[in-house]
Amino acid sequence: MKTINIGILGFGVVGAGVAKLLIEKKQLLESRIGAVLNLKTIADIDTTTDRGIELGSTALVNDAKLIIKDPDIDIIVETIGGETIAKDFIFKALENKKHVVTANKALLAGFGNELVKTARHNQVDLGFEASCGGCMPIIKSLRESLVANDIQSMSAILNGTCNYILTKISKDGSAFDVALKDAQDLGFAEAEPSLDIDGYDTAHKLAILNSLAHGMEINLKDIHVEGIRNITPVDIEFAKSFGYTIKLLAIGKKHDDHVEARVHPTMISNSNPLSHVDKSMNAIAIEADATGRTMLYGHGAGMLPTASAVLSDIADIARNIISKTKRRVPILGYPEDNIKSIPILPMSELYTRYYLRFEAQDHPGVLSKISGILGENNISIKSVHQKGRQSNGKVRVVMITHIAKEAWVQAALARIEKTDSVVGDPVIIRIEEITQ
Fold first, then answer.
1. Are residues 290 and 362 in the same domain?
2. What pLDDT, on the 0 to 100 scale, is given for residue 434?
């Protein structure tokens, strides 16, 4: 039976998970793949901490170059993360004609186009199933299972930290800071959580998924990104009263000559399955012309769910090695020569519905003034909801619009803010009508 040697760069949570599965599932993997997956070497700057894994004959070293330059190693798994040293290691591994597997979505979103070119030049594979959605097979679904489909849209919950916080606010009425602290205590959120709660982690994943879905270059810089810092129990309660749930969604839609790509808090109907994806779970709904709607659901992070996705890439590459096949499936789902530069729609050109909340002065004519400014900017109001006077003497006014253009809404809000009718910044949450 052929032996395929594997090296792991990084022995943290994910690296340890990959090692654990390679060692503990050795017989299962051999029976399914038809080859021995031998974990030859692990590199990490910390070679003394006990990870609770019996490594046996696997070497633990503190120099990644020993793996990158080892002629016997076939597949290198990068689990360091980040865009600095991990980037250098992956490029060097590819240049040394090693197949690479990574979960590093930030690196792929920022440098994926260059990585794909380097892999192509050296005729090696680059696997990244674990980069988006944890154990959910999103990459394989877009790259292989849905190959005969035009992908029309994707709507996804791709960050467990944000989803946990929003669930906590919704279920318990917690303030954002309290929900964040709870997420940190449980290990769902980092001590410095900006990447998650400001939406950038989700944007990294959307950039990758857009490329796979539409055959476009990976484009992170043009994705509109908003986080969840400003979501309050007040807005969540209003959403409930309208039959909606607020989720941080990654939304991608294909049009004739451009793609929508946006990440922001979104109101979706409670009849939509995504509204019931709670706590740290992830999910994605894909609309395609042949299949209709397909939905995947699962753990978006964690040692073993992420390691499971990494192992799926290792298995695919190992099968290629056994059959003496290289790059059987294109890295981005399309042959590199067919990848196009497709523009992302400027956010100002978006048309959707809106939830608008104002802290209004309790004076005659205030409501008509706000409505008038909206009307002057072509915004039609579907419904108006007004709560009683608060202790500060202000009145909460909520409006749900019909479909309007983002540029119109932003122009109207800028005018409203300058009047003496409202206090503070208006709250704006987009409403997404996702096909059932």
1. no
2. 64
Domain count, the chain: 3
Distance, in Å, from the CA atom of 129 to the CA atom of 136, rounded to the nearest integer, reads: 8
344: left (phi over 0), alpha (psi -120 to 50) or beta: beta
User: Are 9 and 125 contained in the same domain?
Assistant: yes
Tokens standing for 51?
Answer: 């990870």
3-state secondary structure of 38: strand
Q: Which residues of the chain have pLDDT under 70?
A: 388, 390-392, 434-436
CATH number at residue 329: 3.40.50.720
| 272 and 355 belong to one structural domain | no
What does the DSSP 8-state code read for residue 344? B
Residue 436 lies in a domain: no
Q: List 166's β-bridge partners, or say none.
A: none
User: For 323-381, how does the pLDDT look when each residue is reduced to its tens digit (9 = 90+)?
Assistant: 999 899 999 999 999 999 999 999 999 999 999 999 998 888 899 999 999 999 999 99
Residue 61 is assigned to a structural domain of this protein = yes
Pick the closest to residue 3 from 28, 24, 41, 34 (CA basis): 34
Q: Give the other-Cβ count within 10 Å of 170's Cβ.
A: 20
Residue 171 known to be catalytic: no
User: What does the block give as tokens for 173?
Assistant: 């009425």
Same domain for 191 and 237, yes or no, is yes
Rounded to 5 degrees, φ, ψ at 408 are -65, -45
- Whether residues 54 and 118 fall in one domain: yes
The residue from 98, 140, 205, 247 that is catalytic is: 205
Task: Kindly give the pairing relationship between strand 404-405 and strand 381-389.
Answer: unpaired
Q: Which residues pair with 404 in a beta bridge?
A: 352
Distance of CA 424 to the CA centre of its chain: 31
Describe the chain by its helix, strand, coil percentages, rounded to 5: 40, 25, 35
> What pLDDT score was predicted for residue 391?
54
Q: Would the pTM count as exceeding 0.90?
A: yes
Reported as half-sphere exposure (CB side, CA atoms, 13 A), residue 71 has a value of: 0
Q: Are residues 325 and 391 in the same domain?
A: no
Supply the range of the domain harboring residue 380.
347-431
Residue 47 has a pLDDT of 97
Element at 118 (helix H, strand E)? helix 105-121
